[in-house]
Amino acid sequence: EIPARADQEVAPARERKIAARDGDGDQAGGLPVPAITKGATFMSPRVRARMAELQLTTADLAGIMGTGAGNRVTIKDLESFLHKLENQTAHEASKIRAGVADAMRRSWTRPLSTIGSSVNLDAALQDRRSRDPKPGLGLYALRALALALAKNPAAAAKFIGNRVVQSNSIDVGIAVEAEDGIMVPVIRSAEKSSLPDLTTKYKELIELARQRRISPDMQAGGIATVSNFGIFGMEWGTPIPLPDQTLLLGLGVGKKVPSWDETRNEFVPKTEAQITLSFDHRSVDGGGASRLLKRVIELLENPKEL
Known about the structure:
Helix content: 25-40%
Number of domains: 2
CATH superfamily of the largest domain: Chloramphenicol acetyltransferase-like domain
Number of strands: 13
Oligomer: single chain
Largest sheet: 7 strands, mixed
Order of helices and strands: HEHEHHEHHEEEEEEHEEEEH
């Protein structure tokens, strides 16, 4: 009886699939559900060989609608796509731009997640005014992250194969804008560097970046990076960790907002910024990432501890 019942259920199911493909099928919950996913999902060996010849990736062909059987992308589809590109303005990507693109593509193969909160920057801004030279807020964030990681070494690890590889030192990168991309030089043992030392090192790195003299070795081996996208006026972002790193701390622009003061029983202004932590979910869970970000915020709001 069981095979007979299965046969009875297969036929209607096949009919529903055909109807859905023709546009006449039912919609789940009243929402349109595509029966077929289009795009460069299936590619023939000939297409893949042509891609290898042109150094193309699957992501490069995401906009191609396959016309072959089962929506397979055919060589004709690929050549038509390439012909259209020839009629558009294009130029060779710089080494920096190509390197950034490759790093982001490799990073996106991992399960990444981002959490965020707000941080009061008034204490850090006041502390900055008393210093000479004056460190940027990104360096305050870098120092806070390095100290937080030193107290929470479990978060300073990389997941490789079936092993959790612990970092021997807290090496933290800082994103530096180049002409047509970004460079991320790494500051070694950042938890042992004071804010004045970090300020001096950062100025040296900025100069090297402008001269394009930051070598690959200077950008390798970090566990985390700090990105101060607030300097562009942005409040929030979900920056992507580099493929060989586990964490990326992002700091947004500071803005004056009202805050309730219990002692004065009134609203008072404060400088608040949004702060995010993107992480490789294989290495760090949400709870661990939350505790790490909370500690970073505590340090930023108490800069004397930095």
